[in-house]
Amino acid sequence: MSHDASATWSGFNYQGKVALYHTLTLITKQLQENGNFDFLGFELILENHEDFDIKGPDGFQSFHQVKAINQTAFSTYENALFAMLLQLDSPNHSSVIGYLHTWKPLNWNGDDSFDEKLRGILSKVINNHIE
Q: What is the CA angle 9-99-93, rounded to 5?
């Protein structure tokens, strides 16, 4: 049986579009604040720490996980969020901001805040892997 990579290709296509859109939005905002802003030392890096990263002259500014999944349940994204938390936990990345970009808005069940949802993910991983 041959592998149909069209879903994978579609995901990469979406990641690229989100990376370009986010980067152009940052550039536009910065130029509106300072028309003479020097972008020397800034980079858009694809497939490094996450799907794309924004790096400034002083190091990484943000990591971005992009998911082109036709699902809205928060639980669908738990693995991606856990992987992001591991990246952000490094002492080298203490000032880096993490983003999750989804194709569809997440269906938010319950009254938990986003922080509480992340704590729940960590707790579940710990309970599943530590006796």
A: 115
Laid out side by side, the sheet with 97-102 consists of 43-46, 52-56, 59-67, 97-102
For the chain, the structural domain boundaries read 6-129
Relative orientation angle of helices 78-88 and 114-129, to the nearest 10 degrees: 90
Cβ proximity of 100 and 80 under 8 Å: yes
pLDDT tens by residue, the chain, 131 residues:
465 555 677 778 999 999 999 999 999 999 999 999 999 999 999 999 999 999 999 999 999 999 988 888 888 888 888 888 888 988 889 899 999 999 888 887 777 887 888 888 888 878 877 76
Burial (CB count <10 Å: 0-12, 13-18, 19+), residue 67 = buried
Handedness of CA 59, 94, 50, 100 (dihedral sign): negative
DSSP state of 92: G
